[in-house]
């Protein structure tokens, strides 16, 4: 848009907010969104020499070159998600973006003209469009090119960047046409045209504000930027900054969990970079103590073996190599130059063609990567960080272990009813598992590739998780609105030389029932191993049936109590709330003492859950797959510890990894649990757990007091002890 | 043994056989079994410089050094397999062998003395021993140090080599004691003391003859070598050469399958090397057209993705990196210098400390490895190669595929009742699967780590395989003796530019029933993909129920016919012969035409079996796990095509790999089968199959005639065709 400078100045002066005086640079140079003129010079220079950036460039160029000979196809919108016109328009914005990059690096106008031709085709089509024919009935956010405006906003985020990249190769006439017939109408449609979506504090709103705000930078519409940042009415009630304030916790945790966090990251990362390039004085990366960088880092921390912890609706094969996080890591490295991010970039194996990507590529080529530090951390949930927390505990002692504990909030519509659940990983594998989402993404035969009905009827239900079910009903009676209002409390989290411990509780999952769980990942240094302690306290005003499931991956090896197994016929365990999907394979009622269940995971290691039982716990062995007429569910195993007619119950158990099954080398070591004693004593606010394992005797002490970790002395079996933090482990043999 | 040369000479002259005049070198040098004096010089030289051999040497030395400070422990035999004394004696022979190697390379006598001390401890113990207390009642082959003499023979094979390695560091007195109190008695016990085992044409016999024969070389007892080679009575009815003649087919296939083949290889490889080093004029490696080398090569060919095809009793994680095959590959490379063996050695990742191992290490260090060529091959079964065959077909067109077809003999006690079964692999994964053995090796809680009862009741039964079951009974009515007498026939096998095809038949699996199956792996070059054609003809004198199971790995995605699924209750499919272990999940009866079942494997690819049905085939969907009170079985899936009351039936189907499921990158391609037409016509001896797939029309012709592949002309739908071999594929679009 070629506007005389004077006119531009006048226009700016009509704006009043003082921020603008500070903030807006007169813009005459393109590109200047994620990729700047300075970046382009460095990138052009880089591709003259070999290196991973150059390799990535030529790979992209080859992909674009393959498409260029084909005519531009901009079909009239017709199909919904997954259909032809939908997929074609998605492909188009990616193509335009890629061709724009190649144009800037090659300076070959053929690429710019390809983008121009496609933009002109869109400019011809767009004014003819009404709302999309496949939009959902009564949808609040229909698109025109796409069935929902979310896709249209994603289209704009890419297309505005492509336009910016080829701007200097366009004639004034083309610019006029493309801006007035296409880009301005789209930006207006997504902002003024859909206030409820644009102002919404939700990731759909983030895409819309990112697209419109970036369009504001490119087309010199500072007002659009203001609205994108502060709501259409500039009140700050909505807009990008409010989204940054609300959608992440102060630690950078996104309420829906890592699977959706990585998706939500993309527009944040993109728009923030464009803001910083155009108006560095807004200090967007410092906003809220650098919450955006924290959000990127948190997404990495919430992974194991390269895959995200699959809490809530999550497809389990999604991990840190997702494209959104490739962008995120490039940004994080460029902001911090922390060599740990290079480690992640290396695992991602993908170089972004941008100034940040170049920085990563150069550093990788120089071998600057250092191991990224995965830590034990508690991520506060909710915008204030106080709606519970998601806790990760890790240990490298005798394994490569991670424990995920979830006294976190519901997490909106994609949340599962799994308060205080846990998952456990070792030696690269999932051991105590979470089903994740019931969905075969984009597989037409499986319910059109959408979330399966079994996602509601099984995967979201409490019994599908490793946490307590009262009377065969799910938390909050399966009502997501109630769930959203009622988060658990993280009582404490601490990590010290003895391991890591956390405790959470919730009183609102069931009326009149208090659930409190303490989980610890405990280092037994003498044995070079780490065990898990799980203490789950239930207290209720009335008597209930209490079920505590444990979903394990592997083959059941042994139990130390008799099982009655249904060998001729299998029946369904229950009738609703997920129970209707479980076959009852067998059950047993261990005598008072220690009840053991051992299984063998595919990683070649044995795992035993030893529980302290009083004779009132029944063990039900189940397999997923009942009421599954379309074979939609994976047939995984669990056992459920059940007590009936109880007001109070305490489930105490230890998970112990042991031994090795190595049929390749034909040996098997320690297939049997070595835990021989487990005793629990409460002493005021101290939980004292005596453990005898492999000839060692340990006392584990957990300080549960409200005032927190202050030094305390206590006696156990006549001997004096002292605990300074929340967790302590004493090797009694040494005393 | 220091014997004056004259005495030695006299002794030799008392021997009569003319072979001996040719064969026996006067021996004065140690070591000279697998490792020779010449080898030692080269090896000592090698470890002065860095390289993979040196790395392997120092790794072994470190392991030995770790053990050396501990006192020698030679316990009085007490425990059976897996027990303490059993495992200790196993550990001891390995330790002696390793320390012997380190002595030769380091020339540090401390290592020799360690071996000496252990040998002397054994020499003290051995004369006091009676038969092992844990021997099986009425066992034909009890040991003294071990519960069975097989282990004792393995002990001797290692120990005699260790003795040979440290010989030159021993005093005359020690030699006298060790030979007279230990090595001679053991050798005599394993030969004259157990004629039935020693003379047996069986791998137990191979270990015994290898141990005794090598003892003969070391202790100058040529008579022992003769007996080891030709039976105790030197008749040739038993002995090592007879074992080489009988236990392998002319192509080098071992009757029990690759899992046991790799185990059986070890004594063959070891003793043959010792024979060749001592008596090269016996030309042991040329014996029977080099059958030993063929046996090594066959073991490699019978693998996929590094793991052995799990036919018969086989633990599925066993593969080419097994120590026996590390030795085998070192020998094969040293004999042939074929750089393909270096590829395998590289995958094995282990260097043997021997002359052969050095050769491999040097070649690997020089980067001489070239890809090992996995081929489509038919391995004749039985000592004459005519007891059927095991057929492997491979393709790299649009995948990495292998099809195993088994018109092979029963394979003795470890054989399964699975005549004409098949398995199929693609993209690194098992797709159409075989259960393998039901066993958790050495896991005490799982039936003492032995073969589980379910190995007999399920894994060996016909229904556990992908082949035909008549009237819910297993082949040969499950009688192994009958099975051993009655092998299938391989009608033909051919590989050409169109793919590979084989046909096999058997008339004796069921009385009055002929089973004939033709399987082809067909390259569809235009589509860049490979499909499987399966034609199974059954003909019987009376009417029967015919079941054809297909065991698949993955998640069922779809069927193109309606299923009636048991959602509330599961029942057992049958009462015996493996059927009692199958839950019936659901069933369906497709209309005449094409019946499709699609599943998604963990490799991210879809697979569809399309069958040509006439409305009389019922599909039963099953899961393993019924009548399994100890959770011993893996809960895998199958579907069984069933027809009832039939004298004749032809099952015709195509297995088609298609598409990709990539939730990480969020796309799904071609989740649906593209096969739209399938028609079968018999024309004299020609099987003609018309296939329409992804818009291409193909005619597949298979020449089934007895006279074999001669050029033939034929007409199909009025057009002329010509076939020169067994298999031809015509793209009809081109006509």
From TrEMBL, chains A, B:
UniProt cross-references to Pfam families, sorted A to Z: Alginate_lyase, Hepar_II_III_C
The keyword Signal is assigned to this record: yes
Keyword match Lyase: yes
Listed InterPro entries: Alginate_lyase_dom, Chondroitin_lyas, Hepar_II_III_C
Keyword vocabulary terms for this entry: Lyase, Periplasm, Signal
Molecular function (Gene Ontology), one example: lyase activity
Residues of the signal peptide: 1-28
Residues in Alginate lyase domain copies: 57-301
Record localization: Periplasm
Positions of the Heparinase II/III-like C-terminal domain: 382-604
GO cellular component: periplasmic space
Protein name as annotated: Alginate lyase family protein
Species: Bowmanella dokdonensis
């Amino acid at each position: 848009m070629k506007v005389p400078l004077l006119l531009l100045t006048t226009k700016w002066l009509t704006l009043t907010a003082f921020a603008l005086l500070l903030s807006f640079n007169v813009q005459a140079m393109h590109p200047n969104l994620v990729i700047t003129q300075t970046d382009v010079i460095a990138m052009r220079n880089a591709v003259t020499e070999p290196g991973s950036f150059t390799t990535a460039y030529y790979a992209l160029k080859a992909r674009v070159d393959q498409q260029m000979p084909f005519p531009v196809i901009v079909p009239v919108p017709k199909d919904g998600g997954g259909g032809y016109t939908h997929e074609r328009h998605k492909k188009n914005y990616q193509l335009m973006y890629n061709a724009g990059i190649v144009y800037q690096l090659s300076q070959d106008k053929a690429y710019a003209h390809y983008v121009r031709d496609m933009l002109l085709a869109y400019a011809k089509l767009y004014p003819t469009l009404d709302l999309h024919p496949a939009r959902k009935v009564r949808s609040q956010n229909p698109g025109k090119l796409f069935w929902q405006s979310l896709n249209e906003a994603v289209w704009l985020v890419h297309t505005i960047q492509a336009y910016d990249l080829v701007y200097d190769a366009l004639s004034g006439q083309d610019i006029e046409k493309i801006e007035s017939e296409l880009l301005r109408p789209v930006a207006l449609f997504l902002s003024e045209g859909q206030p409820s979506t644009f102002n919404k504090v939700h990731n759909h709103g983030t895409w819309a504000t990112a697209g419109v705000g970036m369009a504001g930078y490119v087309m010199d519409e500072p007002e659009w930027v203001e609205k994108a940042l502060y709501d259409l009415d500039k009140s700050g009630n909505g807009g990008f900054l409010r989204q940054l304030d609300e959608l992440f916790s102060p630690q950078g945790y996104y309420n829906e969990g890592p699977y959706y966090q990585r998706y939500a990251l993309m527009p944040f990362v993109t728009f923030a970079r464009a803001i910083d390039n155009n108006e560095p004085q807004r200090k967007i990366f410092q906003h809220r103590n650098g919450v955006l960088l924290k959000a990127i880092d948190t997404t990495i921390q919430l992974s194991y073996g390269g895959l995200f912890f699959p809490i809530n609706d999550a497809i389990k094969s999604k991990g840190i190599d997702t494209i959104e996080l490739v962008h995120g890591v490039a940004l994080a490295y460029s902001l911090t130059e922390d060599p740990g991010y290079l480690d992640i970039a290396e695992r991602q194996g993908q170089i972004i063609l941008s100034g940040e990507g170049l920085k990563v590529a150069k550093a990788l080529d120089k071998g600057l990567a250092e191991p990224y530090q995965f830590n034990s951390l508690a991520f506060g949930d909710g915008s204030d960080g106080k709606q519970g927390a998601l806790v990760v505990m890790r240990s490298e002692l005798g394994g490569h272990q991670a424990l995920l504990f979830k006294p976190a909030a519901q997490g909106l519509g994609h949340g599962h009813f799994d308060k205080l659940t846990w998952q456990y990983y070792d030696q690269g594998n999932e051991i105590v598992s979470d089903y994740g989402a019931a969905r075969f993404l984009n597989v037409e035969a499986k319910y059109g590739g959408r979330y399966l009905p079994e996602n509601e009827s099984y995967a979201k239900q409490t019994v599908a998780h490793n946490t307590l079910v009262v009377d065969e009903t799910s938390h909050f009676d399966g009502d997501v609105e109630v769930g959203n209002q009622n988060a658990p409390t993280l009582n404490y989290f601490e990590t010290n030389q003895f391991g890591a411990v956390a405790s959470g509780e919730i009183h609102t999952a069931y009326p009149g029932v208090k659930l409190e769980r303490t989980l610890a990942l405990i280092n037994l240094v003498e044995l070079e191993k780490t065990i898990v302690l799980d203490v789950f306290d239930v207290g209720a005003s009335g008597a209930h049936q209490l079920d505590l499931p444990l979903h394990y991956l592997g083959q059941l090896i042994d139990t130390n109590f008799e099982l009655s197994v249904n060998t001729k016929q299998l029946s369904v365990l229950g009738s609703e709330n997920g129970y209707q999907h479980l076959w009852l394979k067998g059950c047993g009622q261990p005598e008072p003492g220690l009840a053991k269940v051992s299984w063998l995971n595919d990683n070649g290691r044995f795992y035993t859950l030893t529980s302290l039982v009083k004779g009132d716990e029944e063990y039900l062995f189940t397999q997923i797959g009942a009421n599954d007429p379309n074979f939609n569910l994976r047939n995984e195993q669990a056992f459920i510890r059940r007590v009936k007619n109880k007001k109070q119950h305490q489930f105490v158990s230890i998970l112990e990894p042991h031994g090795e099954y190595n049929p390749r080398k034909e040996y098997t070591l320690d297939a049997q649990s070595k835990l021989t004693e487990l005793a629990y004593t409460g002493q005021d606010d101290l939980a004292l757990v005596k453990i005898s394992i492999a000839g060692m005797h340990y006392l584990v002490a957990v300080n549960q007091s409200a005032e927190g970790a202050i030094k305390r002395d206590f006696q156990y079996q006549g001997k004096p002890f002292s605990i300074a933090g929340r967790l302590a482990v004493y090797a009694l043999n040494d005393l």
